[in-house]
Predict the structure.
Amino acid sequence: MKSNRKNSLDPISIPNWRWSHFLEITTKACSIFQPIPYAIDNDFLFKESFFGARSNPKKVTLETWGFKTDKIRQARCACLQAGEITSVMNLVISPFNNYDLPFFGADFVTLPNGHLIALDLQPALKNDIIHTQNVWANLESIHANWQSKLPSGGEIPSEARQYFSPGFLWTRIPLGDDGDNLITQIIQPAFNEYLKLFLDLVSNAKMISEERSLKLLNGQKKYMRYRANKDPARGMLRGFFGDLWTEHYINHILFDLQ
Ligand code: DBV
């Protein structure tokens, strides 16, 4: 099937994609920054395949949404729906390194065994107080309010901890009505507050020195390399779309600052 999406800012049109409301919120909130399309080849703007038993093949659809602005190097969202249940929104907003800003990271994943929600303003330089103090001072109270209403997400890989802030909202919730209610009543308002804080930081950000920009760039590249190397979706994407396509997608679209 062909997609009529021409560029990364064209709206997503995946039928019954569970996370569409969150991308609508993001699109609306970011429209004040005059976003322009981010160059992405057609083969990565839209991709479709089939999986499962030959007698009853199921469809998997992936679309990539994205933009850039004067302060945001790349905002991109991998939007995937596989069959009835499996539904992924992997959104990362990466500022230019000449602003002292964190990444905005949202990994919303529905699998047959439940929903996994990871949301954070992720530090490029976790041990640098100039980089973190302004963010964490505002984020920790927001986090405390919403995380207290959610079950914990459990252990995360120890090597990944350096890429998360103390405000990392992390939970695993069951499928079904209870899960849906938690997504509507807790995850949605939490997402709004995390995104608003991030975009306010972007609005107020001032250019930093050349020397400090280099430090930020190194921190950003380390984060991108880690995520590209350890992408938990690699196996799933390879199963759906093949190794070559997946490696190009992960290393040259999703985490393209290495
Ligand atoms: N995760 C991605 C991309 C995805 C994606 C690009 C296109 O970075 C999906 C899709 N994340 C995805 C899937 C799973 C997870 C898990 C499908 C489930 C894997 C499984 O259980 O089979 C946050 N995502 C996770 C986990 C975490 C995150 C902590 C659980 C642990 C894991 O399975 O590794 N955000 C994610 C993450 C980092 C981050 C791993 C690392 C720094 O910033």
The longest strand covers residues 72-82. The chain has a mean pLDDT of 97.
